[in-house]
């Protein structure tokens, strides 16, 4: 089932909310808010709306103030906003556009115009998201790439730092992969990487968790808000799952099949720590897993699994 695009309609008049909802529901998933406070809360939801139709004149918090707060919040600053208003003076329109609104819809509504303007913006939003998604996907394996990982760890690092939460990271390396390519060919090597990526995705399925291709035969796992012992157990399940694939590798010194080595670390970021440090710590643990004979998991607590 294809997820429909999401629209948030914000208007203090119930009649206007119902009218816009009826116009848009056949084509989109529509959410309603009756004031600025509700609008901001809905905009911060997960997943956020793709587009907001925002009334200008509302009590307590008008549309201009709502837009200002949306633009000041990193969670909502990129959501396109169409102002809905009875104000038709040139300076009113210019004010909203200068604040970051993408368009204006005038009251009273003309159904065909509302649908057309929303459709045009939604088409652009869909195309933009497709381009963004393609830029963050590894072409070989179909999982997130290094660029997406860099974006995710930056966000999770700042969130963990802000709330004092734990963050776990693991580096994953395919054992003796050069020898595999030399023996079976690069086409077979590519297929191994795809199968390993798919296997990891079957284990990494909690909201917020991420598996990405880091480069070459190396992958990375990002596990927020999880205890070190549980993070290490997840890494071990991945190691076992890859081993269970029984992909023949006669040139491996670790096993007769393709295996992986995993090095991980768990910590609570502080103002004095950096992302580079957690990457280095995880890489150090990966080195220990390889030194122990490969086909193993090494965490900051030591070699938990052999």
Can you give a write-up of this model?
Mean pLDDT is 92; it is low at 302-306. This protein has helices spanning 14-24, 36-43, 63-72, 90-99, 111-135, 146-163, 177-184, 186-203, 228-244, 275-291; strands at residues 6-10, 29-33, 51-55, 81-85, 103-106, 167-174, 210-215, 218-224, 260-267, 297-299, 302-305. The chain contains ten helices and eleven strands. The strands form two sheets. Strands 7-8-6-9-10-11 form a six-stranded mixed beta sheet, with helices on both faces. The chain has a five-stranded parallel beta sheet with strand order 2-1-3-4-5, sandwiched between helices. The protein is α/β, with parallel strands linked by helices and 306 residues long. Helix 4 (90-99) links the parallel strand 4 and strand 5 (103-106). The protein has two domains: 6-130, Response regulator (Rossmann fold); 146-305, Alpha-Beta Plaits (2-Layer Sandwich), CATH 3.30.70.270.
CATH superfamily of the largest domain: Reverse transcriptase/Diguanylate cyclase domain
How many discrete structural domains? Answer: 2
Strand order of the largest sheet: 7-8-6-9-10-11
* Radius of gyration (Å): 25 Å
Q: Can you give keywords for this protein?
A:
single chain, 306 residues, alpha/beta, Rossmann fold, Alpha-Beta Plaits, 2 domains, 6-stranded mixed β-sheet, 10 helices, 46% helix, 20% strand, disordered C terminus
Outline:
By secondary structure, the chain is an alpha/beta fold. It has 10 helices and 11 strands. It is 46% helix and 20% strand.
